[in-house]
Amino acid sequence: MPVALLLVFLAPLLQSCQSPAPRDASVAVLAPLEIAPSARRFRLRSDQSRLLVLVYRDGRLANLGHNHVVSSNDLQGEIYFTDDRNNSSFEVRLPVTTMEVDLPQNRVEAGDDFPGELSPDAVSGTRANMLGDQQLDAEAWPEIILRSRRIRGASPDIVVQVEIAVRSHVHAIEIPVRVAISGEQITVTGRFTLNQTDLGIEPFSVMMGALKVRDELDIQFSLVAEADNPAG
Question: pLDDT tens digits, residue range 43-62?
């Protein structure tokens, strides 16, 4: 699902073969975010930030399935910015229940691999699967969380080591991003791939693999953050 992206964050569309985590299972706890004393806090603007997760069909009978676009315009979190970029840090929180599936405009923007609108029943069914206890289990695990652990490189193009927590699973990945700073606003954009199996999710497969969902997810994002206390 999407992550998905968290992306996921995120193997979105699939009925997983694995059993859901017990409701009383211990939640995987990410280590606290390391915030430099000199850091200035910028809060994400949910109304200007966006996540897209492109999910592709696969297998000999792939033509019987659909590719899907999972999206979120409800990204929350903070960027802690320092003059020394390598000491900056961030946390992004993705509420899974506000994720959308196959919005018509998103399918158009995603290109020729995502033709036409899907029926309301197909969309609602896919979204229900995504949020169900075999996938993101939204009732028990309401957020996907990303925290930076290390930043390297020089602006505008840097590489961020990130830990992604999806349900009880934590996965570390390096993500290339581009940073733009304009006055009291920071914009971070990027694109990367992530396997569902990296998140502890087995891609959906039927008919002995003749129709399945590709393990790899294509994740795109744009984060816009504004300073808590603009400089006067």
Answer: 999 999 999 999 998 767 66
Q: Which is it for the CA torsion 108, 110, 115, 116, positive or negative?
A: negative
- What's the token pair of residue 92? 């992004």
CB 21 within 8 A of CB 167: yes
Helix (H, G, I), strand (E, B) or coil at 83: coil
d(CA 14, CA 26): 24
Cis peptide leading into residue 42 (ω within 30°): no
User: Is 19 contained in some domain?
Assistant: no
Number of domains present in the structure of the chain? 1
pTM, to two decimals: 0.82
How many angstroms from the chain centroid is the CA of residue 56?
Answer: 16
- Residue 185's CB is within 10 A of a number of other CB atoms, namely 15
Q: Which of 124-133, 152-161, 203-212 has the highest mean pLDDT?
A: 152-161
Q: At 33, is the secondary structure helix, strand, or coil?
A: coil
Structure tokens given for 35: 């915030």
Please tell me the total number of residues recorded for the chain in this structure.
232
| Phi, psi angle pair for 195, to nearest 5° | -85, 140
Please give the residue range of the domain that contains residue 111: 2-13+33-227
Are residues 54 and 85 in contact, defined by beta-carbon separation less than 8 angstroms? no
Q: Is residue 104 part of a domain?
A: yes
How far apart, in Å, are the Cα atoms of 135 and each of 8, 24, 105, 118, 128?
10, 17, 25, 21, 10
Closest CA to 10 of 223, 217, 221, 222: 217
Q: How far is CA 28 from CA 25, 140, 167, in A?
A: 9, 13, 8
